[in-house]
Amino acid sequence: MKKLLFLSICFSVVIFCLGTAVAEEKGASAAIKPSDGWTLHIDAKRHMPKMPDMVVHHYCKPVSGGLIECQLYDSDKPDARLIGVEMVVDAATYNKFTKKEKALWHHHKTEIPKVDATLPDLSAEEAAKTLKGMEETYGKVYILWNPAKNESPVGKPAVSVLH
């Protein structure tokens, strides 16, 4: 009888704790929006066709499925224009792609030095550590429009291959 009472109390405590955790998680997720968390700022060149010296400002965050997504802007000013998106995957995900798909991606280990990547919001030590951690990832850049061609967002979106 004592054993049954003890198990009932333990079960009740577990259920209470789980309910509290689920309620806290729901409350926390309700306050967080998909637009939150774009906090990693990376500046890089060579992303825009015919504009190799244009600095493209990446604002990145990890999302579900092990992906990292970056919004690409033409400046870091409050009225900057969204000009592209970069998807970032790890090596295991990249290795599952077909040969044709792999051709659309770039390896960050070789790309980062070519684009003069900087992380202006981090200390030099933090930036070096972050860039080192990105070396074994792969990126695919979707250019939505090219401000070098037109001040308005016209034209066909394209994948910019940075090999």
UniProtKB/TrEMBL annotation:
Signal peptide start-end: 1-23
Keyword Metal-binding found: no
Alphabetically ordered keywords of this record: Signal
InterPro entries in alphabetical order: OBAP-like
Cited Pfam families: DUF1264 (PF06884)
Superkingdom in the source lineage: Bacteria
S-adenosyl-L-methionine in keyword set: no
Protein name, per record: DUF1264 domain-containing protein
Organism: Candidatus Sulfobium mesophilum
